Every structure is written in structure tokens, then in C-alpha cells.
Amino acid sequence: MPARAGAPSALSVSEVAPGVFVHQGLYEEQSPQNRGDIANASFIVGKDAVAVIDTSGSFKVGRELHAAIRGVTDRPIKYVINTHMHPDHVLGNAAFKADRPDYVGHHKLQRALAMRADSYLQSNKLMLGDEAFEGSEIVLPTVLVEDKLSLDLGGRSLVCEPQKTAHTDNDLIITDTATDTLFLGDLLFSVHIPTIDGSIKGWLSLLDELATRKAARVVPGHGPPAMEFPGALDAERKYLSTVASDVRKLIADNKTMSEAAKTAALSERADWKLFDTFHVRNVTTAFAELEWD
Q1: Cβ neighbours of residue 247 under 8 Å, at least 6 residues apart?
Q2: pLDDT value, residue 6
Q3: Roughly how many angstroms between the first and final C-alpha of the chain, as a whole number?
Q4: What is the pTM of this model?
Q5: What is the pLDDT of residue 7?
Q6: Backbone phi, then psi, for 185, in 5-degree steps?
Q7: In what order do the strands lie in the sheet with 20-23?
Q8: DSSP H or E stretch at residue 72
């Protein structure tokens, strides 16, 4: 479909399975230059309707995701699903308001976003700048997933499953049953260092559970558009396990959080982008949890 004059450009997308499209975010922090386009965003096209999974980190990028969908299909956008609360996955939600979709999320997502709305908007406006941030807002979920929920797109169903506290306390995973494609959101990072905003113990436990599943492919929250499963989990599990084991040893040796931040899991630095940006925060978060083991 040709773009209308003045219409937003469309994000680039890859069709990773029939009817499953993924835009790969950049391995960067939010900035005016990238406009918050730093997380993967996906959409699935059924016979009757479309579902979007995560909408990127600003209204403007979300609008370009919307344009990408319209470049593929004119079927109605029935669902916008957020895998968790972080701004780089939800601030594009407002670009879909005119479609009047159901906004779907973990049963804890509404409260988590409502509590953090002001701080998320202030901090992201500061990082993106006024022009790139313009139009961005927090759109709360209207459908809360308490247990397994199936969404019908016509000829294919998406199964949404809320998870225990891991990356956050509101992680949702989605399976496209037609292609056996698993969407893990930020329960899976590749290349971009994982970031802990929930429980390192819970995350490692959940990775063990996820590794027993079968899927044709997995879409990470940060990383390539699609990866082989369950092998895609290995690097992340190694990083989190190394952080946990190093921090536990330092705690046993009566080291402080500050000392742990300087030494724990430095062997992992070469394996991850943005290591120096997020690793110390991960170690201090893990220390605060594990010192009470």
C-alpha cells in the first residue's frame, strides 16, 4: 500500500513465520536520535484481525509500527498486548487508540503502570527530548490476564500466560498456536544485557521451566527478530547464574554491596552490549535480594 502524503514512514519488519512480523529494536539506550526504538515489537495477522505485541518506546515509533501493519494488511487491529510494564515496550500504545483495540496485559500490569506513570513519563521525556517524546502517554490495559487466556484472530489463536515474578512482577508470555511461535518479551534478552527489575531467583527458576517447553522459534524482547528455542535461553541463563553465584559468594565472604558491584560477574562483560550501563544495577538488585537468603 503506498503511503499517503504526510503519513508516517513504516518501521522495517521481518516475517519470521507466516503472518508473524517482528521489528527489531536497536541495542541502545533511549535517545532523541532513536526516539525510543530500542525493543522488539511484533504483530500477528489472522483471517479476521491483527494483534500487536509491544509497541516500542514512543508514540512516534508506535505510529510507524502502525504504518508497517497497514503496509501488510487492512484487517482491524483488535488487540494490543504488552509483555510487561517497561516504557520501551508500552509508550507506543497511544498510536493505536483510534483502532479501539483491547489492551491486554498481566493482571498486575495495570497497577504497576499506574504507580509508575509519572516517573516513566518524566524520565523518558528527559531521555528522548520534547520532539521525539511528543504524543507519548501511558495507556493502561483493559483486559487483565489472571490465568491462561486465548485470543482469536480468525484461523489462529494467541495464548497469553501470566508469569511469576522474574524480569518484573508483570511478565506475560504469548504463543501463536498457528506457527508455534513463542513471544517472551524481556524474559529473554539476546546481545543486549538482561536487566533485573523483579527477582533474579524467580527469573532463573522460570528459565528452567521455560526450557522444558517446545516451540518452533522464540521472539526475544531485545535481540534478533527470532531465535531457536530453547537454545536462545542459554546465554541469558549463564549471565544471571554467574551474577547470582558471584553475589552469593561475596555475601558469604561478608563483602558489601559496593564491593560486589565492582567485582561480581565481570567475566560476562565481553558477551553483552550495554554491560557497563546496566550490570552494576543488576548486581545491586541481586545483592539486595540474595542477602536475605
Answers
A1: 260, 264, 265, 283, 286, 287, 290
A2: 58
A3: 57
A4: 0.96
A5: 72
A6: 55, -145
A7: 14-17, 20-23, 41-45, 50-53, 77-81, 102-106, 143-145
A8: none
